[in-house]
Every structure is written in structure tokens, then in C-alpha cells.
């Protein structure tokens, strides 16, 4: 598989990640991951960071498509990781959720940690709630771009970078992402033709080591475009 490279310089690599690809393995797996493909194309990434992430600065879930940034050396990795950690990187996602949302925009501010009931999932906690000790702060903004009969298309802006944050937060609002098998509700409808969760990382703004501000955009993946077209009919 040849990756779609949106941008490259001596410090940074920006990839348009396809859906269905694990970014890097967290346990032994046999399927090929994004990092395997990257190492074939850019062998020098073996010298950046540590196994299994190497130069990967942040991650996207297997079935999420869109913009992923990769550092090409250790100095750049530290520089970009600091920006992500301090919330300076602007990220915008397109998400189709179940149900209609009354407010045009809103925010979710909670704690997030691994679910004790299901190790694959993250659980939303409120402060002072039993089990919330040591859980990490998570903040997500959203606005409604378009409403359909049983769904709403949102622009989602995570201000923190917790695992599964967008998926867990939208499910917490009782508007889980369409097609999300892990966080979706029982008997939740799925739009015709949707084979994965409708989540796409469409925009990212970051500062380069030379001080220049760069913006990257990724068009909605073809399979998701078709789903929207069907909903409009």
C-alpha cells in the first residue's frame, strides 16, 4: 500500500490515513500496521523515538481516516509532542452522530479512563464520582454542520488527546458516532452503506520548529461522502 503524503520536510511527515489501518501495534498482531508501511517507505524512522511508535506523534483509531502527523527526528518529535501536550495543536474532525442535536454547539468536559467493565473501552467519569481518582481531564467542543432525519453531522474539536475521546464523549451525550460498534448503543440505526465509524480527521494546524504555522486539510473519505449523499436523497 502506498500512503498519501500531504506534506513532507526535514522534520515532519503528514499522512492522509486510510480507514481500516492500525497506526501501531499495542499488542502482538499479524496484520500490517501504518508504522510497518511507513518504515518501508521511510526506513530512517527506525531511529526516531521508540518501538512501536517510532516517530508517530499522535494516533487515530483503526477505522478513523484523515490527517496523521509523524516526526522525522527525535528533536522534532519532542518539539511536536510538547505542542500536542500543551493543547496548542488545532484539530478538527467530521463526525456523523445518531439522533438530532438541539443546540447548535456545545462542549463536553469530563475525566476519562479505561473502563473497568470492558478493557477495550474508555469510560467517562465526573470529578468526585467513585473511581474518578487519577483519571485524566478531557475536553471536546462540537458544532452542528448539518441535520438529517435521524443523524447530525458535526465538526468536533478535541482540546485534549485522550484515547477514544471523541467517541466516548459523543456516546456520553447520547449521540454516539454512526457505525461505531464499540461505543454505539444497542439497536442503534446505521446509515445505508456505512461500513465503519463515521469519523474523519479533516484539519490540523501546527507550528513548525522554524516558527512557521502550517495548516493541513483532508477531504472527507469517499465512503463517507457517499453515506452523506444517500442521507440527503
Describe this structure in words.
It is a single chain. With 233 residues, the protein is of the alpha+beta class. The protein has one domain: Pseudouridine synthase (2-Layer Sandwich). The chain has 4 helices and 10 strands, in the order ββαβαβββββαββα. It has helices spanning 34-41, 74-85, 165-172, 222-232, and strands spanning 4-8, 12-17, 65-71, 90-98, 105-114, 122-125, 136-147, 151-158, 199-207, 213-217. Strands 1, 2, 3, 4, 5, 6, 7, 8, 9 and 10 form a 10-stranded mixed sheet that branches. A hairpin with a 7-residue loop joins β5 and β6. The longest helix is centred in the middle third of the chain and has 12 residues, at 74-85. The protein is globular and about 50 Å long.
Briefly summarize what is shown.
With 233 residues, the protein is an alpha+beta fold. Helices cover 17% and strands 32% of the residues.
CATH class: Alpha Beta
Major beta sheet summary: 10 strands, mixed
Number of strands: 10
Question: SSE order in H/E notation?
Answer: EEHEHEEEEEHEEH
CATH architecture: 2-Layer Sandwich
Unreliable residue runs: none
Number of domains: 1
- From the N-terminal CA to the C-terminal CA, the straight-line distance is 34 Å
SSE blueprint:
Elements: E1 4-8, E2 12-17, H1 34-41, E3 65-71, H2 74-85, E4 90-98, E5 105-114, E6 122-125, E7 136-147, E8 151-158, H3 165-172, E9 199-207, E10 213-217, H4 222-232
Parallel strand pairs: 3-9
Antiparallel strand pairs: 1-2, 2-3, 4-8, 4-9, 5-6, 5-7, 7-8, 9-10
Amino acid at each position: 500500500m502506498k500512503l498519501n503524503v500531504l506534506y513532507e520536510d526535514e522534520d515532519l511527515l503528514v499522512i492522509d490515513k486510510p480507514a481500516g489501518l492500525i497506526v501501531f501495534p499495542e499488542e502482538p498482531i499479524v496484520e500490517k500496521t501504518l508504522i510497518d508501511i511507513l518504515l518501508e517507505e521511510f526506513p530512517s524512522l527506525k531511529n526516531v523515538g521508540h518501538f512501536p511508535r517510532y516517530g508517530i506523534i499522535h494516533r487515530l483509531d483503526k477505522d478513523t481516516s484523515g490527517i496523521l502527523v509523524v516526526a522525522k527526528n527525535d528533536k522534532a518529535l519532542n518539539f511536536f509532542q510538547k505542542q500536542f501536550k500543551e493543547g496548542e495543536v488545532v484539530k478538527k474532525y467530521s463526525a456523523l452522530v445518531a439522533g438530532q442535536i438541539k443546540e447548535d454547539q456545545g462542549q463536553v468536559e469530563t475525566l476519562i479512563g479505561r473502563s473497568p467493565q470492558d478493557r477495550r473501552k474508555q469510560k467517562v467519569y465526573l470529578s468526585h464520582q467513585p473511581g474518578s481518582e487519577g483519571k485524566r481531564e478531557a475536553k471536546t467542543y462540537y458544532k452542528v454542520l448539518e441535520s438529517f432525519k435521524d443523524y447530525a453531522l458535526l465538526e468536533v474539536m478535541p482540546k485534549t488527546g485522550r484515547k477514544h475521546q471523541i467517541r466516548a464523549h459523543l456516546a456520553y451525550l447520547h449521540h454516539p458516532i454512526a457505525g461505531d460498534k464499540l461505543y454505539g448503543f444497542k439497536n442503534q440505526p446505521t446509515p445505508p452503506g456505512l461500513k465503519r465509524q463515521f469519523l474523519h480527521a479533516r484539519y490540523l494546524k501546527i507550528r513548525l520548529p522554524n516558527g512557521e504555522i502550517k495548516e493541513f486539510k483532508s477531504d472527507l473519505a469517499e465512503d463517507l461522502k457517499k453515506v452523506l449523499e444517500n442521507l440527503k436523497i
